[in-house]
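Memo to structure team: turn this sequence into structure tokens by end of day. - J.P.
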Amino acid sequence: GQNVTVGQSKKTHPIDWGSTSHALCTDHSHLPEKTIIGNDVWVGEGAVIMEGLTIGHGAIIGRNALVTKDVEPYQIVGGNPAKPIRYRFDENTRTSLLESKWWELDLRDLKNLDYKNVENFIDAIGTLKKQAQYQTYHITRTSISDHN
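Reply from structure team:
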């Protein structure tokens, strides 16, 4: 979604100092923790994901959610702070999707599968063999770099 913040620092202002103002606290520094977002994740407009969290594969983050805890694979969360709403699929389906690592397969082959029916999708994934080579990027406030 639009206007999403990923890796929002929990320590942008020193709350235990005499002032929280950056005009006074010029020597305040913070090394952010890595935030990891899995494959096939949908992040709704205006969501904020705090630093150091892991958002599991296939998760959905609701619009304007404030994510302060890790999100499990295929879990739907929403609210401020974000709370679990439900899972997209039952446990067996989630396990099958995760074990398949379908996001590592070639997109051209995946487009030919019946993705509207999750059982058919999982069955068909097993027939695909061609691994894809997708880029992974490391994103900071000031740069985007190839992570491979």
